[in-house]
Amino acid sequence: MAITTRCALLLGLCWLMLTGCARGPQTCAVCDRDECTGMGFRVTLESGKTITTCCPRCGLHYGASQKVRAYGATDFSTGQSFDAAAATFVSGSDVHPCSRPGAMRDAQGCCAMTTYDRCLPSLVAFREREAAVAFQKKHGGELITFAELVSKK
Ligand SMILES: [Zn+2]
Ligand SMILES: [Zn+2]
């Protein structure tokens, strides 16, 4: 077996064991990770096609190069889907369920992985601004609206 294949398997295994969050049934169309419940994001294109990503960060990255009709976010506090345009996001908090834990990367040793992570800084969506504020107080990060996010890119 090629070393790279073995590493990938090991990594996958560790990832499954170390990741605390519940995994959704979908796989991210951008980074191929499983969707984290409470973080899922949907991008509906002009063509009518909808893709699902593991988190808003991936969804916005994808949408930046597409003709997008609508973005759908998941409210982190309730798990319900809603229009991302109305969301308040917390960027760069200490909650980043879809990024790989750094410790695991070191423990594996063998795998040359970039430190760049598509999903970081993490982006968590909230329907209620108060919920976002409460989350930010606990987990740090910065409050940001959808309009600000889109104009930042
Ligand atoms: Zn992703
Ligand atoms: Zn992600």
What does this structure look like?
The protein has helices spanning 3-18, 56-63, 102-108, 129-139, 146-152; strands at residues 23-27, 34-36, 41-45, 50-53, 68-74, 81-83, 88-91, 123-126, 142-145. With 153 residues, the protein is of the alpha+beta class. The strands form three sheets. A four-stranded antiparallel beta sheet has the order 4-3-5-6. The chain has a three-stranded antiparallel beta sheet with strand order 8-7-9. The protein is globular, with a radius of gyration of 16 Å. The chain binds zinc ion (2 copies). One zinc ion (ZN) binds next to helix 2.
List the helices and strands and how they pair.
Layout (H helix, E strand, L loop, with lengths): L2 H16 L4 E5 L6 E3 L4 E5 L4 E4 L2 H8 L4 E7 L6 E3 L4 E4 L10 H7 L14 E4 L2 H11 L2 E4 H7 L1
Bound molecules: zinc ion (ZN) (2 copies).
The site of one zinc ion has 10 residues, from loops.
Structural class: alpha+beta
Unreliably modeled segments: 9-22, 102-114
Number of domains: 1
Shape assignment: globular
Can you give keywords for this protein?
153 residues, alpha+beta, 4-stranded antiparallel β-sheet, 32% helix, binds zinc ion
Short description:
The protein is of the alpha+beta class. 32% of the residues lie in helices and 25% in strands. One zinc ion binds next to loops.
